[in-house]
Amino acid sequence: MARIERRADVDLEEPTLVEGLPGLGLVGKLATDHLVETFDMTYYASVHCDGLPGVGVYREGDRIVRPAVRLYADAERDFVALQSDVPVSASAAPGFADCVTDWIETEDALPLYLSGYPGQTEDDETPVFGVATTDAAGGRLDDLDVAPPSENGAVAGPTGALLERAAEAGVDGIGLVVESDPQFPDPEAAAALIEQGIGPLADVNADVSELIDRAEEIRAQKEELARRMQQAATDESSQAQPIRMFQ
């Protein structure tokens, strides 16, 4: 049965949720993993949505097996992170989106969905833009001067399914999209998501210098996961991409 099962008592009130599914450049996962570690967030809930692979995850020095998709919480910051160690398949994405969106509605949370789009800018600042599922959420982006998209596009994969489901349900939600290396893990792009989007929207302050300083080491550690993502079908990977069409 699809459910999100609480594992710890953490008091939350209209929290901000950041989504960290693996995708292009692993930008969402890198950003979310960094925030979980930086804030020493509490393992809050296990995610058991239909279609998720039955994988037990263990950590170095810890005997306890946990599910591959989990929620971590920080009561002080009213902040929740969805951490995933597996990709969500295309066939499972709609059910997964329903399961997570039901929890978001119950908790009155504001979800921030993260995605990369292929490109490597030569500018000093990595471009981040924002999209929204409602006018109210769009107003949050306007207030913080987060850029709108500069061309037509679509977010694919499970992150796209989450955005589509939130829009359908009228749930306030924000998609943050960053230009990212299309082939390798991109810690710099993940840092840009935190600095330009997640931090201002969630009112949290996280030092991203470690992400940038350890970029080469992080790439080496994450390349195996990136290779597995590349082997999956394109529609199973969360990514944004332009749509070229006649107007």
UniProtKB/TrEMBL annotation:
Gene3D superfamilies: PAC-like subunit. Residues 223-247 are annotated as: Disordered. Residues 231-241 have a biased composition (Polar residues). One of its GO terms (cellular component) is proteasome complex. Keywords: Proteasome. It comes from the Archaea. This is Proteasome assembly chaperone family protein.
